[in-house]
Amino acid sequence: MHQWIRWPLRLTSSLAALLLFDQAVFAGQFLAGAFPALQTHRDNATYAGVAVLTAAAAAALIRWPGRGPIWPTLAFLGLFGLIAAQIALGFARVLALHIPLGVLIILTGGLLAAWSWRYRPAVVAVAPRPTGTASVGERS
Length: 140
Fold this sequence. Notes:
The protein is built from four helices and no strands. The chain has helices at 7-31, 37-63, 71-91, 95-118.
């Protein structure tokens, strides 16, 4: 696998993790009385969702053409589903679920970003052609 294939996932998953972490910062600012932070929290939720979808596309490169595992792509798509549920819970003001789900989403995003930096593809050894044997069409 080419070394470059890991960089899109590293960059997009790191950006997604940062935007997800920022959600807690903006929520904290709102709870501390900075009421405009609620709009920033809403806007950043959209940006974080887009970043997670972009990371899912980058994770697909790990699989195709990289021949790596498919689970990171599925994990990012699942994380996007959780973000969609999180947004719905936020607008419905179901904070008893919105806050713990937010913690889970931030943790998952951070773990996926950390994995993207630690990932090392398995090296597939190709057996050399035996020497001393004639190939089809060759004469000894």
